[in-house]
């Protein structure tokens, strides 16, 4: 029997009138429609949208804008993910806004003074926690509707952020390796 808490691999049915705004939000502005591994595309969308902050904004601006984006897209994404289940079934694979929000959480400790490879590390850590779902992450999928879809990725992002925070605290300094 299939695990009812795994993402559905069923593609969206044709002919259903899914409203455009929640569809764009649920699919991370269409990234979920890209072929192969939509969750990874959703996480990469987060990095693409976040990268200008890393490159050109200061630490405070990066933290404020990223935090605001997490809150806004987290709320809208939970709603849009709930709507997506009405059209595409439980936890559809193309609904990847949860990966975008989770990736942003994992990027919070990657500040402008951090080395660029921490961005890659945050992606790798986030996808590890998102795919394998250790340490209670899988249990959060049991929450109803969009809450369950979003919660596992939020927790995966938190675990990834904690590891990067620890790395920054004990290994990396603003001037390079400790």
Can you put this structure into words, describing what you see?
The structure is a single chain. This protein starts with 19 loop residues before the first helix and ends with a strand. The chain has a two-stranded antiparallel sheet with strand order 1-2. A hairpin with a 2-residue loop joins strand 1 (172-173) and strand 2. By secondary structure, it is mostly helical. The protein has helices spanning 20-26, 38-56, 59-88, 97-107, 117-132, 137-140, 145-170, and strands at residues 172-173, 176-177. The chain has one domain (36-177).
Summarize the structure.
The protein is built from seven helices and two strands; from the N terminus they run αααααααββ. With 178 residues, it is mostly helical.
Task: List the topology elements.
Layout: H1 20-26, H2 38-56, H3 59-88, H4 97-107, H5 117-132, H6 137-140, H7 145-170, E1 172-173, E2 176-177
Antiparallel strand pairs: 1-2
Helix pairs in contact: 1-3, 2-4, 2-5, 3-4, 3-7, 4-5, 4-7, 5-7
Main sheet specs: 2 strands, antiparallel
Which percent bin holds the helix content?
Answer: 55-70%
Helix- and strand-based class? mainly alpha
Percent strand? under 5%
What do the pLDDT scores average to? 90
Number of domains: 1
Total number of strands: 2
H and E order: HHHHHHHEE
């Amino acid at each position: 029997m299939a695990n009812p808490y795994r993402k559905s691999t069923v593609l969206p049915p044709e002919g259903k009138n899914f409203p455009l705004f929640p569809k764009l939000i649920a699919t991370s502005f269409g990234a979920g429609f890209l072929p192969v591994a939509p969750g990874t595309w959703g996480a990469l969308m987060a990095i693409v949208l976040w990268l200008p902050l890393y490159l050109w904004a200061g630490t405070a601006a990066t933290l404020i804008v990223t935090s605001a984006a997490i809150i806004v897209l987290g709320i809208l994404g939970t709603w849009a993910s709930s709507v997506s289940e009405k059209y595409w079934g439980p936890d559809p694979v193309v609904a990847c806004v949860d990966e975008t929000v989770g990736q942003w959480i994992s990027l919070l400790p990657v500040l402008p003074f951090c080395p660029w490879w921490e961005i890659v590390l945050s992606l790798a850590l986030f996808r590890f926690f998102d795919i394998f779902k250790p340490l209670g992450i899988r249990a959060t999928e049991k929450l109803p509707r969009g809450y369950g879809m979003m919660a596992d990725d939020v927790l995966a992002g938190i675990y990834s952020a904690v590891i990067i925070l620890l790395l920054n605290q004990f290994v990396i300094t603003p001037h390079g390796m400790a």
